[in-house]
Amino acid sequence: MSSSRNNDPFWWSFFGAGGVFSSFFIPIHVLLLGIALPLAWWTVEPETLLELVRHPLARIYLFMLISLTLFHAAHRIRFTLHDLLLAKQIDTPAAYLCYTGAIVGTVVTLVTVWTL
Amino acid sequence: MDTETAPTYKRFRPSAYHPSMALTWWMKKPSYLLYILRELTAVFVAAYAIILLLTVRALSQGGEAWDTWLATLQRPGMILFHGFILAFAVYHSLTWFTLAPTALVVRIKDKVLPASALIAVHVAAWVGCSAFIAWVLLSA
């Protein structure tokens, strides 16, 4: 019987799911909420936006988008640190740091969308 | 064997072989640089996930909190930062779609969908998703 103690496939599945979600949805949010809205290319009442994000589907969407994007980035940053710094010993602390960050971000996001 | 005359002889001693690689390896070829730029998209995409979370929080707090957050987003440095985020996010999307055929094989009646068709489907889905989100936000 062989057993694998490698967690990579587990984290990779989140990396993959987050990669799909963020590649499809992040650019339009950056354009509309990060550039168009501050520059007043379009205006919206905050109450209207709040009503929109309070919709159950919007809450689920925001939670999945933010959380999976964080896991995607955590995985990628972990391996990029390894590639850039060329130090094998950095991988374990980097993995803990990156995945812990994504888990904390997920909890904060869950609380935020739950209590909107 | 006379090791004194050849002390650095390593051919049959793999343990003594330490290939050296400069920390600047990613500057040596354009393809290496593009790879690192692709990986660095994660930093900008993660930064935006946090900004989106802060936007939702400011919305839920309402009133003054929202005005303060909007004023922060309106600072020239923040607009510029969002320009960088947008560029990296688009680069992330395009590189992700071109990677899709290596991770995904779609068969239709024993025929494998060509890579170019799979990429085209992803780009079309991207345009569709973006249009849907824009429609939801702009018609609110």
Question: Quick summary of this structure?
Answer:
Helices cover 78% and strands 0% of the residues of chain A. Chain A is mostly helical and 116 residues long.
SSE topology:
The complex is a heterodimer of chains A (116) and B (140).
Chain A lengths: L7 H29 L9 H8 L2 H30 L5 H24 L2
Helix pairs in contact in A: 1-3, 3-4
Chain B lengths: L29 H32 L1 H11 L2 H28 L3 E2 L2 E2 L2 H24 L2
Antiparallel strand pairs in B: 1-2
Task: Characterise this structure.
The complex is a heterodimer of chains A (116) and B (140). By secondary structure, chain A is mostly helical. Chain A has a single domain (13-38, 52-114), classed as Fumarate reductase/succinate dehydrogenase, transmembrane subunit (3 helical TM bundles of succinate and fumarate reductases, Up-down Bundle). Helix content of chain A is 78%, strand content 0%. Chain A starts with 7 loop residues before the first helix and ends with a helix. The model of chain A has no long low-confidence stretch (mean pLDDT 92). Chain B is mainly alpha-helical. Chain B has a single domain (31-138), classed as Fumarate reductase/succinate dehydrogenase, transmembrane subunit (3 helical TM bundles of succinate and fumarate reductases, Up-down Bundle), CATH 1.20.1300.10. Chain B has four helices and two strands. In chain B, helix 3 runs antiparallel to helix 4. Chains A and B meet through helix 1, helix 2, helix 3 and helix 4 of A and helix 1, helix 2, helix 3 and helix 4 of B.
